[in-house]
Here is the input.
Amino acid sequence: ATDTVTFRQAPVVDVRTVIKSLKGVKGVGNRDISDRILQARNELGEAFGNKKAKAQIRAEVRNKINMDAVKGDMDVIEASIEERISLMPSKKDLADEADLSRPVPKYNAEAKVASEIYDLEDVLPRANQSQINIIPLLKANGADAYKEKLAARSPFLEKKIEGILSVAKPDIASLRRALYLGYLMRFYVMPTRTIQKRDSCVQSLGCSPEIADFIYDRFAECTAGAINPDGSPIFVKTAATETRLACHISVLMLSLNNWVIYPSEMAADLGIPSKKAEKYLQNVGCKIEAVTVDEIAKHTFGKRAKIGASKKAVLMAPIKFPKPGLRRA
Here is the structure.
């Protein structure tokens, strides 16, 4: 070993891949080679391929983009893309739009306590409260007497009214909300043929015509061009209005029960599965929690509400609504 390095002149070695058949062809670019290979493959496919292969080749030819033609329009394409991006709503805009379209009463997203989240005067405006007759309940002798005057058969509602009337000075606003809840529960389970005729609906609800009008305005839609035999318009509950109705029922039940409700109880009163009741309660911002059998037995009313029940819904502040699920195309 001499600890030296000797540099000598040597030829440059080209290690690039060269196609032998094109070795003698000069000035042929890689893209041209690819196009020629593709053309040859297509010609073979057209000559010897089956019907499916031929159809695929024709589809590829139709869908092929002419890059030379596109290059001249690149500026126009980029400008068009940027313009469309600028017109797209932001994430905040989409969130605000989703909040406005929620089927719930007016709410305060900044509220720090559950009782201040929903505006109960939006649920039942002050102007409509006086249109709910509470005198028969105040004069009723015992529970059996006022139960007959309720629009809905609901153990939950009966117990709440019993609690309101058990004190020397009943809370009139809560009593009217409870009666209004009964009207909405009855309207939810009411057959379509009854809803179609407003007069029949008023008789079934047992409420004033003004309250019936208020319920129809919020939770029913007039069928365009359809009329009853007497010439009156036909009304229906749509999927959207039914969801809005259930959300208002949820808020009313929560307001009468210290902002906690058991989905099984709501399901029993409305004749729906517990999972559907849970979804309605989640739509108004409730958190679903697991509970013990003992808690269900202690805090629910009616046999149906206790069968298989294991959850409760709690409205917590600040309110959090469920995120919309991703829809498959």
Observations:
- The longest strand covers residues 221-227.
- The CA atoms of residues 151 and 183 lie 6 Å apart.
